[in-house]
Specification:
137 residues
């Protein structure tokens, strides 16, 4: 089986479940069930895309601030705008790009780095002055 959750071949009942992104494995005898141990691991795995997205969402919900724009996303902004790469990042930068000035200014309140990068890349009018004026009043 290929994909993020894989099982290596071994005799029935003796499967080893592992993360296909970092290689962390959960053999028979793992204290919690192997599938639960893997599910818990995904939340903290630095390489698993689901874990990365989950941490982004949790940071937003808990008010820990927006996740920073990654160097990879910044370097590949053109590809993301074309819908390539990481689904969440591609959809998000495309949302910023197609938003009007007022919607972008609202997005800037939570995601200033992302909005700056898209506005600079596409040569869109900056929403920084709108947000600064809004925050003063």
């Amino acid at each position: 089986m290929s994909g993020p959750i894989s099982e290596s071949y071994s005799p029935p009942g003796d499967h080893i479940v592992y993360c296909a992104f970092c290689g962390e494995s959960y053999p028979p005898g793992t204290p919690t069930s192997k599938s639960q141990a893997l599910a818990d691991h995904i939340q903290i795995c630095p390489l698993h895309p689901v874990g990365v997205k989950l941490r982004r969402v949790i940071a937003l919900i808990t008010g820990d601030g927006a996740p920073p724009l990654s160097d990879h996303d910044l370097a590949n902004l053109g590809a993301l705008l074309n819908g390539e790469g990481d689904w969440w990042s591609a959809q998000f930068v495309r949302l910023i790009a197609k938003s009007d000035v007022h919607r972008r200014s609202r997005l800037r309140l939570a995601f200033p780095e992302h909005v700056d990068a898209v506005e600079d890349f596409l040569g869109l009018p900056s929403t920084l002055a709108i947000v600064e004026h809004f925050c003063e009043g």
